[in-house]
Amino acid sequence: MFRALASVLLCCFFLEASFWVHFSYGDLTTCSGIVPMTERGDKISITDFGGVGDGQTLNTIAFRKAIYRIQHLRRRGGTLLFVPSGVYLTDSFNLTSHMTLYLARGAVIKATQDTSNWPLIAPLPSYGRGRERPGGRYMSFIHGDGLEDVVITGENGTIDGQGDIWWNMWRQRTLQFTRPSLVEFVNSRGIVISNVIFRNSPFWNIHPVYCSDVVIRYVTILAPPDSPNTDGIDPDSSSNVCIEDSFISTGDDLVAVKSGWDEYGIAYGRPSSYITVRRVTGSTPFAGVAVGSETSGGVENVLAENINLYNSGVGVHIKTNIGRGGVIKNITVSELFMENVRTGIKVAGDTGDHPDNNFNPNALPYVKDLMLKNIWGVNVQRAGWMHGIENATFTGICLSNVTLQGTTGPRPPSWNCNAIRGAAIEVSPRPCAELTSVEQSGSCASHS
């Protein structure tokens, strides 16, 4: 289903070359070649280890036995674990290096809703505590730590987090620890995730953290619009990440680039860099493309292009806060279309909470060199909101060829700006004065 959807969507996208290393297959520009797909000579099935796809049998032991076999036999070239059609209920489980988790058409790996058994793991050092609650956090449903050469793929099978029980715990304030992500890789490299449907994550959907060389392509990510904190894909203190050709509709940001939280992220000091987001379509009550708000390790060299958003909160959201520290720089968003959006472009220095009271109020974030070009929106309620931080003005902002049309009415969508500096070329409606001064025209020239 999704391949057909992706084919239709691709016909609607503008194609433009990346400003750093990219690969071309025919007319399609892609960064996916940073991690070549591995052909596994050794293949096993979850049914070989007692797996039963009846939707009722608990398959935790079967998955753990299969992965133990892959880890300890170490077949040359790695092993493919095949999950045939059926519904395989299981607790959370860990992957291992040099493996492919392959979901056949009609295969569903479904998380149990027995939260009492869910493993707890330590907080991420760049966060200092769980993102939602102090202390540790629940391990992701499918987890990998310190791995390399791992593939999750198939024939558009489904990984279902059955997150509603976790969402209700969050709403009722009965959570003891931070909810689990659906898939998380930590300190890993050479990761490919493709041709899989991710549904109803308890928390963030796909979370590569402290990773490098990650490709996420041809995925569908779905969660209800009122599901709390169900971000689609969150590259976090990671580098060389390629996100392409996907459909995401969730309850929070579709793609959010992060790098640690306040004093913990500053101390850990690992930025996110060289992140490409290309040909992504979706809807969300929050942001389509976001940077932040946890950016204390820094974020640089992000390219998002050929993005289609509808029925969403914000088109592009750069967000940070006093106490974050870190530098956000060289962010480019181009070829973005949005329809029925509350705010087209938002750049904010007052967004996001703090892990505790030990953050440094003098740790000011610096935001510079933002290029926002070839952006078109219809039924946009507010064109832009750009508020930097006093004593840490956001600089080098360039808007080029931006048209944001409002809903029917006498007043066009407006801009609201403070503590920013930049330039605007061919922008409608007319932007705020901080983006129109002659002195700032170099902000766009430096991106040309």
TrEMBL record:
Q: Does the keyword 4Fe-4S apply?
A: no
State one molecular function term (GO).
polygalacturonase activity
* Highest rank taxon of the organism: Eukaryota
Q: Which GO terms describe its biological process?
A: carbohydrate metabolic process
Q: Which residues form the signal peptide?
A: 1-26
Q: Which InterPro entries match?
A: GH28_Enzymes, Glyco_hydro_28, Pectin_lyas_fold, Pectin_lyase_fold/virulence
**Keywords, A to Z?**
Glycosidase, Hydrolase, Signal
UniProt lists the family membership as follows: Belongs to the glycosyl hydrolase 28 family.
Question: What is this protein's record name?
Answer: Pectate lyase superfamily protein domain-containing protein
State the organism named in the record.
Gossypium darwinii
